[in-house]
Specification:
The structure holds 2 protein chains of 2 kinds. Helices cover about 30% and strands about 25% of the residues of chain A. Chain A contains 6 helices and 7 strands. Chain B has one domain: Butyryl-CoA Dehydrogenase, subunit A, domain 3. Classes of the chains: A alpha+beta, B mainly alpha.
Chain lengths: ~230, ~180
């Protein structure tokens, strides 16, 4: 390849690229700026340590900053998020589930949803950014649900979605790639339920039932997990 | 003695680093992770600038963090569903879909460049370093940076303006190292 460049074209290309870049408005998202500001404001000793757990909701950006910092420091590379965890929850099982499965690195036992119409359909174990991700799958008719629990402290949610409050607990609802995803924090760990086929209401209802920090009370007009499984 | 990096000045560089990270990764979501990790690394302890200015130093850390994350990603267990399957609509696309489309198109064109081209273009045209500073940050000779920049710009313009054949003749095969 020749190293000769037509100077007119070189200059034209430079102007064109710079014009394109200046025409595109791509500021850093607000939550990222908030996380950087939070990180910068922390004393140096705290930049390597877990920040105290913070309330979600109005302080979401701050809580995300803490969770993201922990995730980054733990992972050593790019931070795992609830969204990335959902990719695992949507994958295929690799083995059958034992009678009682406790998520690696946590004290959270996976529920037995057989009575609710969702018998176990298998398990898998993955690593995500240095974290252990334990996933149990449940199947009702043609629908499959993946429930992943991530070791270590809570992850950031990732972009998109919105948060709902149910019985004093926060649940992050996301839709991506045709899948519905519900994420929440239980016992300090990120939990994610995802499915490409089950309705979002089913996922949220199961999450509420599982989350020991939430009182199981479905919103008005919501069916029970058993009713929803029958419909799936 | 070399001056120390002033952490209080770093937030003023977030926008520029985010754009650089987006161009490197091709994804605004991965760019957020990359910028965040870059800042975690930089702020982990006091840093001497060793003759760099702040931006050149940040560019070097961003590049190292990006390359490390790429190496680590290649060693991770693969899952059946990937992040690409889960790509969410960019938050800004709800408010300004045209801007989001233009930005995505442009940064995707840059992200498709061979790595050496991409890093050179990001360092000079997005971060704003001189050719000499970019060479220092990327461990390459200034003349090499100049060549990479010219070819990178040619490819991006060709990609955006639909001149694919000409750009292919100008550049190398994707992924091939060029000096």
């Amino acid at each position: 390849m020749s190293d000769h460049f037509d100077s007119d074209r070189v200059n034209a290309d430079e102007q064109r690229v710079r014009a394109l870049l200046s025409a595109v408005d791509a500021p850093a998202p607000g939550p990222l700026r908030a996380r950087i500001a939070e990180l910068n404001a922390a004393p140096p000793s705290r930049r390597r340590l877990r920040l105290p757990a913070l309330a979600f909701g109005g302080a979401f950006a701050t809580a995300a900053a803490a969770a993201a910092l922990v995730a980054v420091l733990t992972a050593g590379t790019s931070a795992p998020t609830a969204l990335r965890t959902a990719a695992i929850a949507l994958a295929q099982p690799r083995g059958s589930a034992p009678a009682r499965l406790v998520a690696t690195g946590t004290r959270i036992a996976f529920p037995d949803w057989t009575a609710a119409g969702w018998p176990s359909a298998g398990v898998r174990h993955d690593k995500l950014g240095g974290r252990s991700v334990t996933t149990e799958f449940y199947r009702a008719r043609s629908s499959t649900i993946g429930y992943s629990i991530v070791s270590g402290s809570a992850l950031r949610w990732g972009s998109g979605g919105h948060t709902v409050l149910r019985s004093h607990a926060e649940y992050r609802l996301l839709r991506a790639g045709g899948a519905r995803i519900v994420a929440w924090v239980q016992d300090g760990h990120t939990c994610v339920i995802a499915s490409r086929s089950a309705p979002g209401a089913t996922l949220l209802s199961l999450a509420i039932e599982q989350d020991s920090t939430a009182t199981v009370s479905a919103p008005m007009g919501w069916a029970s997990p058993q009713q929803l499984a029958a419909r799936a | 003695m070399s001056p120390r990096l002033d952490p209080q000045r770093l937030p003023s560089h977030v926008n520029r680093l985010y754009r650089a990270a987006w161009a490197l990764c091709g994804s605004p979501h991965e760019a957020e992770d990359l910028v965040q990790e870059t800042f975690v690394r930089v702020l982990a302890r006091p840093r001497q600038l060793s003759g760099d200015d702040e931006l050149a130093y940040l560019m070097r850390v961003l590049r190292n963090t990006f390359l490390d994350s790429r190496r680590t990603a290649s060693r991770r267990p693969q899952v059946a569903a990937t992040l690409d399957d889960l790509e969410l609509a960019d938050e800004r696309s709800r408010d300004r879909p045209e801007d989001a489309l233009e930005a995505q198109e442009l940064y995707s064109a840059i992200a498709k460049l061979p790595e050496d081209f991409r890093l050179a273009l990001v360092a000079v045209d997005i971060v704003g370093l001189s050719y000499g500073e970019a060479g220092k940050a990327l461990n390459a000779r200034e003349a090499t940076i100049t060549t990479r920049i010219h070819r990178a710009r040619r490819r991006v313009v060709a990609d955006i303006d639909g001149e694919g054949g000409e750009a292919e003749r100008e550049g190398s095969a994707p992924g091939r190292r060029l000096d």
